[in-house]
Amino acid sequence: MEQYFHWFDLLGVGVFAVSGTLMAYRKNMDGFGVLVLAAVTAIGGGTVRDVILDLPVFWIEDQSFLIASFVAAILTIFWLRFQTKIPQTPLLIADAIGLSYFVVMGAQKALEHGTTPLIAIVMGTITGSFGGVIRDIMANEMPLVLRGELYATAAIAGGIVYTQCLAFGVEMYTSMFAGMIVILLCRLAAIRWNLHFPVFKS
Amino acid sequence: MEQYFHWFDLLGVGVFAVSGTLMAYRKNMDGFGVLVLAAVTAIGGGTVRDVILDLPVFWIEDQSFLIASFVAAILTIFWLRFQTKIPQTPLLIADAIGLSYFVVMGAQKALEHGTTPLIAIVMGTITGSFGGVIRDIMANEMPLVLRGELYATAAIAGGIVYTQCLAFGVEMYTSMFAGMIVILLCRLAAIRWNLHFPVFKS
Amino acid sequence: MEQYFHWFDLLGVGVFAVSGTLMAYRKNMDGFGVLVLAAVTAIGGGTVRDVILDLPVFWIEDQSFLIASFVAAILTIFWLRFQTKIPQTPLLIADAIGLSYFVVMGAQKALEHGTTPLIAIVMGTITGSFGGVIRDIMANEMPLVLRGELYATAAIAGGIVYTQCLAFGVEMYTSMFAGMIVILLCRLAAIRWNLHFPVFKS
After folding, report:
1. How many other CB atoms are found less than 10 A from the CB of residue B6?
2. pTM here?
3. Residue A116: its chain B contacts at CB < 8 A?
4. Residue B101: C-alpha distances to residues A37, A52, B96, B129, B185 (Å)
5. CB of B5 within 8 Å of any CB in chain A?
6. What's the pLDDT band for C199 if we cut at 50, 70, 90?
7. Chain A within 8 Å of C192 (Cβ-Cβ)?
């Protein structure tokens, strides 16, 4: 199982790096700044998680994550040279898969290091969403995740399902799968029907 | 004394969370993004302090801080559903109390871990003001604290008074109290007479 | 050699602090917020490096860095009171020297702590450029380094030259010097001929 996880990790990092590269494209960035934005989007969330939990930062230990994000960025740059139309829907679905995977893996890493379920949910949400937050801040935009679209909400819901499954004695991989499915469905529904979760009276 | 500190800690976190929620309201944020902004405002400063000092991050050790910020955010959301007018002055006073408390506690934590007084003053200022800095950055605004209103200045003044009282042998709680009073008075004066501290010729 | 390095360190910190102060000036900031922006620009990159590598943060260990950035900020404020014209070219050259020095020292610190050359290059680039990134984010601008001008590119090129010289058995100080020269020449060329490195078809 572990070796499959590593490939999923790299895939997730790659998907997030693509979203960073596209933001750099929209903002008309030049030079290797594109690599910076791609890498920050891809590994920023996990970096914040590891720093806050005081664990060794994952991409220092294993540089394949950094390489995956650079490769994804370079492939995207080449794609954009020949093809300016970006396939929006496949990208959103890939991002949803990346999010669901990272949230659950982030929550699991926190639990492994002895946090409470609440902290694990927060750490999962940070892992899944803070790369995008840093991307948007660097691109001088208000972070998308704060403006709704059920992004953080999906992450929190998945984190709750995962930690509660574990609490009720469900086997680990099953719990992880359940958490991921919840996030994926929330995101796909939000994308399909353009759902929001308003908290303030407008 | 220690158990009172914990309640003050939670109160301070709550006040800062309210200011994060109000920013989310002004920026018309949706979904649980509000919780993110509230939490980041409330615990961001202390997180940066603990990470830089390489100490365990305080809200990982004790999740009541996180819960306090969520509760404060949810209460504020309900308040805003029934009452759109925000009582500005009480909020500013509460924020001034929160600031004075956090700055001195942050400086004290730094000193406890063997820093010099200068570093302790810087750490106190970070503890008190960086939550608001991250809040403003996330809301895509230039941080208020950098635009004056004697905010950082009050924090630095209080830090100096606190560390110098200690250096002159004043008892710890008295020194803390002196530092807090200085910050509180600076802030209240700045709010009352709209004081600024210009450094550039305009 | 070591004691000279310390003076170069302080000089580099001072140069970066000046660029932070100038940004604060352009943004018409008030109060001690100027000190914050100066310090963040000067020591932000090294702070991110040390936190990610889980090393003691350099300016906590040795407060002369913080003092150097404050002194540079205060001198700049006085300069700007008597003289509103800022000498652009000398400042850019000083910044290029600061960058080349910080990138190589950052990469070396990473290698010393057992990272791979790739991670060392990334850490050097972070050390040299992230202070400016945080400065621009705090000033609510899109980071300069992401918009090109061969800034990150120069840093990466210097990091590659430095680590590859070491890999080919070149003596350490010679390798460092080679890396710095490459960065300096890239930057000076970029400033002189206003070079960019476009990656997207416009």
Report:
1. 12
2. 0.91
3. 63
4. 37, 23, 9, 12, 13
5. no
6. low
7. no
